[in-house]
Amino acid sequence: MSIRRFKLFPVLASVLLMGGLGACTLATAGSDNAPLPDPTVDASPAQGDQTAVLAGGCFWGLQAVFQHVKGVKKVWAGYSGGAASTADYDRVSDGDTGHAESVKIVYDPTKVSYGQLLKIYFSVATDPTQLNRQGPDVGTQYRSAIFYGNDEQQRIATAYIAQLKAAHAFADPIVTQVTPLKGFYVAESYHQDYAKRHPNEPYIVFNDAPKVVHLQQQFPTLYVPDRGEVVSVTLH
């Protein structure tokens, strides 16, 4: 088993403890840190479970966030954007496969909409202004990307990004890609539910646990507390 991200722990932990990076690496939305607006374009009513595939940094944190969202039934960590033959962690970590660390989200559209998932994504799950990186993780495999599965998802994602840009929701340009989903490949078993199973690892404590806290704070009606907390964190 090779988890290259572990190499960052000693340096990352020491920098964070000295106050160098702060407890979370999300962008600040708006000049007054106002909540993001609801999408003006959203999905039509649908019957049956729906699927969303999103990328934006380490899939550990993405999975941890969406596992706590009302209406979400299952979240897998995996890879999207490249070929099946290169969909393994060692190859993806090289940064030249076209893959991004992603999550596949199966959800009930009667409880949470695609547009609401995107609002959560942009608000607490990823920093859409960081190009080919998220915080301490650098490379195209950590890019911010929405992999749409149909025309409606493309329309909603494109419209919401345009809405956020028009509202000047972020101080820096949004660089999130909107690209067709060609395949999703489930990551190795040791990556699944990683944040939940390793809540005390420095990477999780400093990078992923705060996202779950922000989810609870910003989306109290969509937050599900009974799926197991990632870690107890107090943000100031």
From TrEMBL:
InterPro entries: Met_Sox_Rdtase_MsrA_dom, Met_Sox_Rdtase_MsrA_sf. One of its GO terms (molecular function) is peptide-methionine (S)-S-oxide reductase activity. The active site is at C58. Residues 1-29 form the signal peptide. It is an enzyme of class 1 (oxidoreductase). Keywords: Oxidoreductase, Signal. Pfam families: PMSR. It catalyses: L-methionyl-[protein] + [thioredoxin]-disulfide + H2O = L-methionyl-(S)-S-oxide-[protein] + [thioredoxin]-dithiol; [thioredoxin]-disulfide + L-methionine + H2O = L-methionine (S)-S-oxide + [thioredoxin]-dithiol. Residues 51-203 form the Peptide methionine sulphoxide reductase MsrA domain. It comes from the Bacteria. Its EC number is 1.8.4.11. PANTHER family: PEPTIDE METHIONINE SULFOXIDE REDUCTASE, PEPTIDE METHIONINE SULFOXIDE REDUCTASE MSRA 2. Has an important function as a repair enzyme for proteins that have been inactivated by oxidation. Catalyzes the reversible oxidation-reduction of methionine sulfoxide in proteins to methionine. Belongs to the MsrA Met sulfoxide reductase family. HAMAP family: MsrA. This is Peptide methionine sulfoxide reductase MsrA. It comes from Dyella japonica.
